[in-house]
Amino acid sequence: MRGMPGDDIAPVLFRQGLRPLGDVLDEHFDDPGLKSVLATYWTYLGQPPSRLAFQDLAITLFAYLEFKPWHVRGGSQAMSSALPDSFLAAGGEVRFHTAVTGILTGRGRVRGVRLADGQVGRTPLRTPPAS
Question: What is the spatial distance between Cα 128 and Cα 112, in angstroms, rounded to a whole number?
Fold first, then answer.
């Protein structure tokens, strides 16, 4: 859509944006190999082409082309390690291999978590472990 007048973008977006990627590709391309290449990045977005909104892939590809690819020094493990490191630096506690069996709420807010071993962690700001 680069170079397309602004008035022309909205009709394309509204006509194609929320349609499944697979349907849009089927409408415009016959070659299964080409469709596979064009849809490659669906794996980063968590939905197969049959369920992924076309606009989600279009935005991803736009960002890739506009801002150029880059990588994190140290790979994805560096990002995974930075999350608990920053949490610990802020005074938090990190537990690995700990199942959360309940989220404790009160007055419309999360107040803590109940762990599988029966322990309860209460704090004004607590997020359950995620991976």
Answer: 8
**Residue range(s) defining the domain that contains residue 82:** 75-122
Total count of domains within the chain: 2
Q: Are residues 13 and 52 in the same domain?
A: yes
Question: In angstroms, rounded to a whole number, what is the distance separating the alpha carbons of residues 97 and 95?
Answer: 7
Q: Are residues 105 and 88 in the same domain?
A: yes
pLDDT in tens, 10-57: 677 778 888 999 999 999 999 999 999 989 888 889 899 999 999 999
Which phi and psi angles does 51 have, rounded to 5°? -120, -15
Any idea what the Cα angle at residue 41 is, between residues 40 and 47, rounded to 5°? 105
d(CA 101, CA 32): 45
Angle at 29 between CA 24 and CA 31, to 5 degrees: 130
**Nearest 5°: CA angle at 32, between 29 and 36?**
95
Q: Taking the model in full, what pTM does it have?
A: 0.49
Distances (CA, A) of 58 to 114, 118, 121: 41, 46, 42
Separation between Cα atoms, residue 98 and residue 48, nearest integer Å: 31
